[in-house]
Every structure is written in C-alpha cells, then in structure tokens.
Amino acid sequence: MSNPILVVGGGPAGLSAAHALASAGQKTILVDKADRLGGAPILSGYAKLVPSGEWARDAIGGMVERVSGKPDIEVFTDTRVTQFQGEPGAFAVTLSNGQRRTVGAGILCTGFTHFDSVNKPEWGFGTYPDVVTTTQVEQMISSGKGVRCPSDGRAPERVAILLCVGSRDRQIGREWCSKICCTVSSNLAMEIREALPKCSVYIYYMDIRTFGLYEDKYYWQSQEEFRVKYIKARIAEVTSDGKRLLVKGEDTLVKRPITIPFDMVVHAIGMDPNVDNPEIAAVFGVELERHGYLQRAATYRAMGGSSRPGVYVAGSALGPETIDDSIAQGQSAAMAALASLRPRALAG
Ligand SMILES: Cc1cc2nc3c(=O)[nH]c(=O)nc-3n(C[C@H](O)[C@H](O)[C@H](O)COP(=O)(O)OP(=O)(O)OC[C@H]3O[C@@H](n4cnc5c(N)ncnc54)[C@H](O)[C@@H]3O)c2cc1C
Ligand code: SF4
Question: Out of 114, 241, 261, 338, which residue is the most buried by the measure of CB atoms under 10 Å away?
C-alpha cells in the first residue's frame, strides 16, 4: 500500500483532487490554512457562479460535503505545511500543528489572492465608500441584503463596473488577464438589473473577453435583454462632486473625454498570485514563474506536474483560472500523482 497523498488547499481544485483520489481508494491528507474548506468562492462569499448559475454555497458547499467525513480523506483546517523533504514515494511532511507524516506525493492547490484595490488609488477605492469591488457586491447579493450603497444604504440608480482592475495593467506590474472577470461582471450587471430594474448599469472596458461560449450568454444577453451599456474607455480617475461619484476618462471609440456620474462604482478585481507563494516555493522546493504564480512542468507529457518530481500543482495557483478548469486540473493532477505511485495498478 502506497503512502497517502497530500493535497494542500481546499478550494475547487483541491476539493476535486481529494475527491478523485478517494474515489480511487487512495488515502489522502487535505490541508488548508483557512478555518473551513471551499476556497475563494466560500471564503469570499461569492453569489451565483458563472456559468452554472448555481449559488456558490450550494455548488462548492456540495464539493466540501463530498470530501467531509470520508474515511480515506483526513482534513486539517487552520493548518499549513512547514516542511516537505525527501523523494517521490516517501516525502517527510511536518504540519504547523506539529504532526509529522510520510506522503507519497504532494498536490499544491493553493490558489490565488484577490487584487487589493487600494493599489489603484486613483480609481477611488478607499477614498469613497461607494467605490466597492466585485467581491463586495457578490457578498451583498449572497447575504440577501441586496445591492446597496455602503455610505447610506440606498439602492443605487446608476452603477458603473470598471473592468481590468489589477489586471492587464503594466504600470502596477500586473500584465496578465484574469480571464473570468469580464464574464463575472456581465453576469453581475444582469443580476443588478434584475434586482433593481430602475438602475442603469454601465460597464467600462478596454476589451471584452467573455471567451468561448460565454459571448452570447453574457456579453450579448446583458446588452440585448438587460440593457446593460458598454463603454470602451480609458479611465483617468474616479472622483466625487459631493453628491455623486464621477468616472472621468476618454471614450476611446469616439476619442472624446467623458465624465459620467454614478451612485456606485464597482472594481472588477483580478487574480494576483497567492501572497504565500514565496513561502510555498521554499517549503516545497518548487519554482515560481516570472509573475509569481507556481511554475508548471514544461511539457504536455507532464500535465499536472510542477518543477519538482513528486509535487503536482492545479488550479489558480498556476495563474488566473476558472472554477471549471480548476476542478478539471485538480482531477488531472490527482491522476498524475496516483499514476506515479501505482503505475502498474493503473496500467493493469
Ligand atoms: C470576484 C471573483 C468572482 C469569481 N467568480 C467566478 C465564477 O463565477 N465562476 C468561475 O468559474 N470562477 C470565478 N472566479 C474565479 C474563482 O475564484 C477561481 O477559479 C477558483 O477560486 C480557483 O480555485 P482554486 O482551488 O484554484 O483556488 P482558491 O479558490 O483560491 O482556493 C485555494 C485554497 O488554498 C488555501 N491556501 C492558500 N494558501 C495556502 C497555504 N499556504 N497553506 C494551506 N492552504 C492554503 C486557501 O485557504 C484556499 O482555501 C471568480 C474570481 C473572482 C476574483
Ligand atoms: S477577463 Fe476581462 S476584465 Fe478580466 S482582466 Fe481579462 S479583459 Fe480584463
């Protein structure tokens, strides 16, 4: 019988990896630094997910239930890995609770960190209470309180959603596209219009990347059915005239300056590398790629691999990723780790 497999991170990727391993009868240790499993969708209180339309608490909560109380999965929350040494098949692991284990392989599913909008001060976050982030609006919806201006609790009549906040921005060292925020924002705009039919919603964009099958379901539907307005613009700043927030910039289609008043401005925040990645790289002896995400193995023949044999990696630890793809990568890394420990069993 091979040693258990260690999965670090209990978000969508880690939950899927742990479930896949247990389904194959593999003993698994699942470790998360947070006080509960579920990753960003649960910890940050997302509302309805794209593209399934399910509430995050049901969809990801169901994944948490699937791994909880399973005899083959030992779960440690509020726990980190402090040491990971040895060779594939027998790594010596020390946990922050003092426990020591021997594991056959490790799968890193340690995810991302939300971009902190205070790093984009000219767009008003931290200065004006009614400048909020997509995660804050998701929390307003998922808590059942509805979308309200934090300053005085009124329902907004005009909302602007600013795309690419903390993504595709070389000035602040974030060159990457966060992949899902266009789709999430179009969806959020439709949810606001549905809940507050009198509220006008504008989306400010550089490019729209509702990729693949999301183009008609989100981009076109939000305009044609929900009358969401899209403005291609370069935003200079978000200020206030004392009554309303003012989004100032240039309409890049007609090449003219524009200033439009709003009650609420929403930053569609991007996905930064996990702030723990330098520590994770040091403990697990894996490399980071140049933006600070975990480095994936170089070839298609090593899908799920990291730069170190016996250590696998999945989900948004590798770069901005959707939930669907994080789940698929979790399963794929689980299969790669399992195959490394039981090659003949799988071949036979
Ligand atoms: C505002 C917003 C809305 C989004 N909405 C959607 C959506 O509707 N649909 C969609 O497909 N995608 C959405 N996404 C993207 C989605 O959040 C990610 O695809 C998903 O969370 C990635 O899952 P993951 O398991 O890779 O990482 P995470 O969800 O980040 O989970 C990582 C887990 O690892 C743990 N961890 C981190 N570091 C350590 C450590 N050092 N030791 C131990 N544990 C650690 C964390 O506590 C966490 O539980 C959204 C993103 C944003 C920013
Ligand atoms: S998905 Fe859209 S909002 Fe997000 S970074 Fe890419 S282009 Fe910008």
Answer: 338
Are 153 and 76 part of one and the same domain? no
- Mutating to test ligand 1, I would choose from 311, 326, 329, 332 the residue with most ligand atoms within 8 A of its C-beta, which is 326
Q: Which atom of ligand 1 is nearest to the CA of 12?
A: 25
pLDDT per residue as tens digits for the range 208-217:
999 999 999 9
CA distance 141 to 159: 15
DSSP H or E stretch at residue 279: helix 277-284
136 in the same domain as 223: yes
* pLDDT tens digit sequence for 110-150: 999 999 999 999 999 999 999 999 999 999 999 999 999 99
- Burial (CB < 10 A; 0-12, 13-18, 19+), residue 247, is buried
- Please tell me the distance from the alpha carbon of residue 230 to that of residue 228, in angstroms, as a whole number: 7
φ/ψ of residue 300, rounded to 5: -65, -25
| 161/65 same-domain check | no
- DSSP SS3 for 82: strand
Q: Is 330 in the pocket of ligand 1 (CB under 6 A)?
A: no
User: Which domain, by its residues, includes 172?
Assistant: 117-271
What number of other Cβ atoms are within 10 A of residue 237's Cβ?
13
Asked if 166 and 119 touch (Cβ cutoff 8 Å), the reply is yes
CA–CA dist 174, 80 (Å, integer): 27
Same domain, 193 and 319: no
Instruction: Output the six-digit token pair for 303.
Output: 């899908």
